[in-house]
Design goal:
With about 80 residues, the protein is mostly helical. It is about 40% helix and about 10% strand. The chain has a two-stranded parallel sheet with strand order 1-2. β1, α2 and β2 form a beta-alpha-beta unit. α1 packs parallel to α2. The longest helix is centred in the middle third of the chain and has 17 residues.
């Protein structure tokens, strides 16, 4: 997740939504990159589970940095329509 956020900010992405099953971890990630994101004019925003799928229709890229959906793991349950 950290590598993806860094790369997206560096490539001049304007907005990055970050979610996590643990809100504190997501907020910590946002804090860690806040200064770098501000320098590159990138907005980092936390999304809770309730708002996550609502924002998918305005996203160009979805990065799953969890084990969900991998072989032998629980399925990644996201409606991508």
């Amino acid at each position: 997740a950290r590598a993806a956020v860094y790369s997206l900010i560096k490539s001049k992405t304007k907005k990055i939504f970050i979610t996590n099953r643990n809100q504190t971890r997501a907020e910590d990630l946002i804090k860690d990159f806040a200064d770098f994101a501000a320098q590159k004019n990138c907005d980092l925003e936390f999304l809770d589970a309730k708002n996550f799928e609502e924002k998918l229709d305005i996203c160009d890229l979805l990065v799953n940095s969890t084990t969900l959906g991998m072989e032998g793991q629980e399925a990644l349950r996201i409606d991508l329509r």
